[in-house]
DNA sequence: TATAAATATCTATATATATTGATATGACTA
DNA sequence: TAGTCATATCAATATATATAGATATTTATA
């Protein structure tokens, strides 16, 4: 497999991770260096805890988010702040 | 359904359209206001004609590309030039 | 160590997307 | 109008992702 193809696949995996309504909302929530716990996110978005946790783990596994545990809480944040730009950009392109 | 949710769904549909290796390659190919026919695209990417046509129609249906027919040729181009930024951005975030 | 709070995982079903090869449609041109 | 070039669609199978509910794991604290 060519290097170029590998890059395309990796980039599309990351985009695919973001390309879901709940996960897009999570990325939006974490703009501007915000750090939020699973509980804070599930309450902010009004979704089940298990649902939030599930989507957060997808975003983490695909390199979109990172996590720091502090006691009982897990604080998630954008691994690359730049990724928030994608959300802004795609929102601007909705005619 | 709330207006906010509708926006999230639309934005994620558009991102989902781009989140595929071949379709990402197509968007990259069409940066800088380029216009390319189906044949030119399938040759440039070294994929079957039917495959190119299929992915182009997905991108068109999800609002990523537009098309102009000129005789036998269909020229595809980015509907919003801004969308190329997404590709640049996600590429920069591959560590 | 028993309990509670926070988070993650599992199971099952439903739904969507990808892939491939074959074929159909549309539009010029000899 | 028959042929051919360009593009689109179809059909079938495989693979992946989503959704929801139940339950397990981890950590702190009484």
Q: Strands of the largest sheet of chain A, in order across it?
A: 1-3-2
CATH class categorisation of chain A: Mainly Alpha
Shape of chain A: globular
Question: CATH homologous superfamily of chain A, by name?
Answer: Winged helix-like DNA-binding domain superfamily/Winged helix DNA-binding domain
CATH fold category name of chain A: Arc Repressor Mutant, subunit A
Low-confidence stretches of chain A: none
Instruction: Give me the CATH architecture of chain A, please.
Output: Orthogonal Bundle
What letter string, H or E per element, gives the SSE order of chain A?
HHEHHEEH
| Rg estimate of chain A, integer Å | 14 Å
Q: What is the straight-line distance between the termini of chain A?
A: 38 Å
- Averaged pLDDT of chain A, please? 96
Oligomer: homodimer
What count of structural domains of chain A? 1
Total helices of chain A: the number is 5
Strand content of chain A: 5-15%
Give the strand tally of chain A.
Answer: 3
Helix proportion range of chain A? 55-70%
Structural class of chain A: alpha+beta
Most residues in contact, chain pair and counts: A-B, 34 and 34 residues
Give a description of the structure.
Two copies of one chain form a homodimer. By secondary structure, chain A is an alpha+beta fold. Chain A has one domain: Arc Repressor Mutant, subunit A (Orthogonal Bundle), CATH 1.10.10.10. The first copy, chain A, has helices spanning 3-18, 21-29, 38-45, 49-61, 83-92, and strands at 36-37, 65-70, 73-78. Chain A has a three-stranded antiparallel β-sheet. Chain A is globular, with a radius of gyration of 14 Å. Chains A and B meet through α1, α2 and α5 of A and α1, α2 and α5 of B. Chain A binds a DNA duplex (30 and 30 nucleotides) through α4.
């Amino acid at each position: 497999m060519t290097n170029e193809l590998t890059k395309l696949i990796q980039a599309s995996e990351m985009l695919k991770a973001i390309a879901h309504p709940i996960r897009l909302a999570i990325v939006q929530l974490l703009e501007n260096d915000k750090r939020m716990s699973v509980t804070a996110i599930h309450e902010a978005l009004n979704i089940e805890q298990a649902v939030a946790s599930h989507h957060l783990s997808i975003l983490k596994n695909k390199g979109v988010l990172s996590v720091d545990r502090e006691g009982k809480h897990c604080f998630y944040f954008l691994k690359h702040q730049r990724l928030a730009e994608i959300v802004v950009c795609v929102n601007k392109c909705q005619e």
